[in-house]
């Protein structure tokens, strides 16, 4: 998706975004909060919506990038460094929202400090999905912005200009390093097992007692990844 060859081609853009969002849809489904079953029809709708949105955003970014190339190297670099980020971040947020939107309808199971399941909370689901969406925005910054800025300097080197294959290898290496340095910290920023104060949840959770008769002040839940 970051390669200039892909960005310049609508066909390759469609193929790249379709592949990427299909993979993302599978990741989002496998790493969801699975306390409630999800109908196959809902998953199919989410997949079509996520892929359709990503391809549309990707094609729009490709069209703008092509036009920006005529405005000079500065404008081209600015577009190349920002549009892929916007396309990937927005698509990632839409993907997780569409693939896991059933959690906003049924809620997720929350547990007290004794490990007892105390019910389904939509507010906990909302918090979990917001954090998952934020992680996707965070990890796309080093993956999509930094490589363009780094390569704008490296690609002027004589040995890369005269060796297209070496240039491609270097660019893939830069993207790979940024990928590994970006995803892990972004995921770590939001723990998978999240907590929420009872006062911030639905009324049904605000006056529950534990086995000792003490008020439960906080609940935990699996927000997914």
TrEMBL record:
One GO-annotated biological process of the protein: mitochondrial transmembrane transport
Origin superkingdom: Eukaryota
Cell compartment(s), UniProt: Mitochondrion membrane
Pfam families assigned: SFXNs (PF03820)
A single Gene Ontology CC term: mitochondrial inner membrane
Example of a GO MF term: monoatomic ion transmembrane transporter activity
Entry annotated with the keyword Transmembrane: yes
InterPro entries assigned: Mtc
Coiled-coil ranges per UniProt: none
Transmembrane segments: 42-65, 77-98, 133-151, 172-193
Keyword set includes Membrane: yes
Keywords: Amino-acid transport, Membrane, Mitochondrion, Transmembrane, Transmembrane helix, Transport
Membrane topology label: Multi-pass membrane protein
Family: Belongs to the sideroflexin family.
Protein name according to UniProt: Sideroflexin
UniProt organism field: Sphaeroforma arctica JP610
């Amino acid at each position: 998706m970051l390669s200039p060859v892909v960005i310049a081609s609508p066909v390759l853009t469609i193929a790249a975004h379709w592949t990427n969002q299909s993979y993302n849809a599978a990741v989002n489904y496998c790493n969801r909060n699975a306390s409630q079953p999800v109908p196959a029809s809902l998953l199919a709708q989410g997949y079509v919506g996520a892929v359709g949105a990503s391809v549309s955003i990707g094609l729009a970014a490709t069209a703008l990038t092509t036009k920006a190339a005529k405005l000079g190297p500065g404008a081209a670099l600015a577009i190349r460094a920002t549009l892929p980020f916007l396309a990937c971040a927005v698509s990632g947020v839409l993907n997780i929202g569409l693939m896991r939107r059933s959690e906003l309808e049924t809620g997720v199971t929350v547990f007290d400090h004794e490990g007892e399941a105390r019910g389904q909370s939509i507010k906990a689901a909302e918090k979990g999905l917001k954090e998952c969406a934020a992680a996707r925005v965070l990890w796309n910054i080093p993956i999509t912005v930094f490589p363009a800025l780094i390569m704008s300097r490296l690609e002027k080197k004589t040995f890369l200009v005269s060796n297209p294959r070496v240039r491609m290898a270097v660019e893939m290496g830069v993207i790979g390093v940024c990928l590994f340095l970006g995803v892990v910290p972004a995921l770590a920023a939001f723990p998978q097992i999240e907590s929420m104060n009872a006062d911030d949840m639905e009324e049904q959770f605000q006056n529950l007692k534990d086995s000792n008769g003490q008020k439960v002040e906080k609940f935990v839940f699996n927000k997914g990844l």
